[in-house]
Amino acid sequence: MSAIELHTINKVYGNSFHALHDLSFDIRDGEFMVFVGPSGCGKSTALRMIAGLESITSGELRIGGRLVNDVDPKDRDIAMVFQSYALYPHKSVRENIAFPLHMAGLPKAEIASRVDEVARTLELTTLLDRRPALLSGGQRQRVAMGRAIVRKPAAFLMDEPLSNLDAKLRVQMRAEIASLQRKLNVTTVYVTHDQVEAMTMGDRVAVMKGGVLQQVDTPQNLYKRPDNVFVAAFIGSPSMNLYEAVLNGRTLTLGSNNFEVPERVFEYRPSLNGASHRQVIVGIRPEHMNDAAIRPSSAEISAPVTLVEALGSESMVHLNIGAPWVDAGDPDAVADIGDERAAVARFSPKSTVRAGDIARVAVDAEELHFFEPVTRTSIW
Amino acid sequence: MRRARRFNINGMLVNAAALVLVLSYALPYVYLLMTSIKPAADVQQIPPSFLPAVVSLENFREVLQSSALPKAFASSLTVAVLTTVLSLAVAVPAAYVATQYRRRITTLFLLFALVTRMVPSVSLGVPLFQLLKALGLLDTIPGLVLAHTSAAVPLALLLMSAFFEGVPKELEEAARMDGCTRFQAFRKIILPVMTGGIAVTALFTFITSWNEFLYALLLTSEATKTAPIVIAEYNSVYGLAWGAMTAAAVLYSLPVIFVTLALQKQIVGGLTFGAVKG
């Protein structure tokens, strides 16, 4: 049993900075849980508290049912992979991997066989006698993984382990870590600020902001049913477009455009029924807007095109929707080139729209998201 | 083409400047060396000559046969080694804590160490004399070791702090996750990584004690007199024994030169120590 339970965990630093607010959720035995969020959201602090490297101000942390608030890191039976890998520079790859086993006092023969086994799994056999300084970034990353898995711990903790790798290697290592975790079936907590990593690797993803847990759910649910504006905008790339709109009966007014919202939306969002000039935040994912000339829809809007980014497989079309734009509150979000309020639509590569055109945009209205303007939570 | 030429001119200018610098450092020592191998009669000739007319080891024979110098060498060596060990024992863990567990108090601690380096040692001589006298440690090896350590610890602390600044905190954390206590992490991981920095600090501490003159003059007399005092005594009311003095000075400089050469690799590694990124 190596489930990890966090119960109303708080972290307040000496300077009164409240880094984590009442963090509560369970990580199931064997689950791959990803903590994701912008810089300063408390995800690494939460991980370090699980590791025992950061003290817990209040709340309870249990690993395998055992209360570990005041247990030393070495006695928690967990292994950690650091962002900088933290390999011991004066030790060879073999000695790095063997170190936790030496500390555990295992017999030499067993240490040797376990190191060899891990080296085979991670394809490090030919590198065992090298020092870390002579390894590439990807190889160092694998050694750090080896040092973690050789102990067969109750849980793995990983703090942005791929952020020092180049984009191509990151994609490859992402898949390798995910498949290794499935193979070993060890509870894993993985911290990243990259939502693509979070979505592709995690069984479940905990989205955090400002030290507060926003939502913990499966990647699919986070995408389909975000709890609030922040999660809606944070998950998905490019981000969901968020605008103030008015719903009157079945008609949605978005800037100068009006279109009918399909009946199905009201079936799974019953609170929207009977709206009379109701102010809402409407969210449209880029993939749910297309060129009406190619894929017509009953819900269409017209918008001037400010920029077209042709990526070959698709075109990112920046549109001036003309409705009040809503800031999702992501401190790391980069404003779009030119106009930060531009909506982004993922058009088919066959689209011929160009910057300066007035595009007719087909909106997949069944996929619209609705949020309360004050609480910024989803309307269901 | 033009760029390559400018590079060459720049390179030559840098080399020339380096040569001038090296010569300005080396010249007094070379003159000392030359004087030490002149026959006693030639040492004080007017005008002085740079190169010896005849090479003679007479001065070396004289100083080695005297009873004072070998004993003073032994005192110097004992004091310098003990000062180095004691200073490192205090400064290495203190610098690690001050840099890796940074608090306002640790910053003040380092600042205070820096301030103590700025106090002229002559102004500390009298209080040290009274302290050691009260402790009954005047003219003893432990007394001089304590005095030298008080001067060497701030230097060692500042040097080691600079080296520890380059050690990522994750190294200790990784070791703690791998089953170490904080102290084991320090002993098994941090210290081996820091050998270069420790070698440099040890050398500077050793040299500080080995060359120290003022405290040795104030706090020792016959029993534990160190070599710098004995060397200075060649200039006495009875005359100035230039030849013997330079020979003793050359002999006294040799251990430092040999230690520096032996630790060259660690020293260069230590001085160029940056992030210890695995």
From TrEMBL, chain A:
It is a peripheral membrane protein. The keyword Nucleotide-binding applies. It holds the Pfam family ABC_tran. One of its GO terms (molecular function) is ATP binding. It is found in: Cell inner membrane. PROSITE patterns: ABC_TRANSPORTER_1 (PS00211), ABC_TRANSPORTER_2 (PS50893). InterPro entries: AAA+_ATPase, ABC_transporter-like_ATP-bd, ABC_transporter-like_CS, ABC_transpr_MalK-like, ABC_transpr_MalK/UgpC-like, Mo/tungstate-bd_C_term_dom, NA-bd_OB-fold, OB_MalK-like. The keyword Plastid does not apply. Its main location: membrane. It comes from the Bacteria. Keywords: ATP-binding, Nucleotide-binding, Sugar transport, Transport. Residues 4-235 form the ABC transporter domain. PANTHER family: MALTODEXTRIN IMPORT ATP-BINDING PROTEIN MSMX, OSMOPROTECTIVE COMPOUNDS UPTAKE ATP-BINDING PROTEIN GGTA. Belongs to the ABC transporter superfamily. This is Multiple sugar transport system ATP-binding protein. It comes from Sinorhizobium kostiense.
TrEMBL record, chain B:
PROSITE patterns: ABC_TM1 (PS50928). SUPFAM superfamilies: MetI-like. This is Multiple sugar transport system permease protein. InterPro entries: BP-dep_ABC_trans_perm, MetI-like, MetI-like_sf. CDD domains: TM_PBP2. It is a multi-pass membrane protein. Keywords: Cell membrane, Membrane, Sugar transport, Transmembrane, Transmembrane helix, Transport. Belongs to the binding-protein-dependent transport system permease family. It holds the Pfam family BPD_transp_1. Residues 73-263 form the ABC transmembrane type-1 domain. The chain crosses the membrane at residues 12-32, 72-96, 108-129, 141-164, 185-207, 240-263. It is found in: Cell membrane.
